[in-house]
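Quick sanity check, DUF4194 domain-containing protein:
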Amino acid sequence: MTTPDDAFADDAFTTPDAIENAPDDTALSLFDGDDGMLTLEQRRCLVVMLKHQIITDEREEWPVLLRDARLIKSRLNDLFLDLVIDRDRGVAYKVQIRSDASGYVPPLLRDSAYTREETVLLAHLRQRHLAERGSGRPHAHIDRDDCLAAVAQFRPAHATDRSGDEKKAGAAVDSLVKAGILVKADGDDRFLISPVIETLLPIDRLRVIQEWLAEQNRPENALRRRIEPAADEPEDAPQDEDDEEDAA
């Protein structure tokens, strides 16, 4: 028969193995005062999702994102953001939850329409990606010069600031690199077109932009724009969601 004193003695002299195998309630604590409930790899994954507009399956955080998608989504939801994962294309991104019947939602992301040059380049990248994948190639690549030439093709005939337009075209390339739509490959001037382009520009939206570009480049419209500038973008142009911090 075990007496209370015996039981106390057993507790007082716990074996080293028992101590080593005991559950550690502080395993999630990574620094003094840490009340977080995520593991280190989960936190890294969450930070990557917050920092970047788009992540792809080439990132080391991708397996963690797929495994713990519900948990990461929950943390984003707490910030009025939602998580979108396209497993087939290997891309994930966050979107801003908008105000609804539940009341005002303070936005963390800023809506900003793509510039004319970015819109032209997005349409070109979508066409290139569509053609390359249609030819059976697993990935679509493009050179920087090809990107600049594609934008220059839709340069208004009446435009006289060639240097300024070239800078805008270069800025458009850099912007899409920063967004993760273009990924550097084999040097600074060659890029992989991210599969996210399929999500950003579905075929129906691509057609709208192509029609708008064709309309903008008609001679009579070019003459009209000299007198009365037209809208810079089609109504259905894709929107870019930037972090407020990046926008500052």
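Posting the structure with no commentary besides this: Residues 36-107 form a domain with the Arc Repressor Mutant, subunit A fold (CATH 1.10.10).
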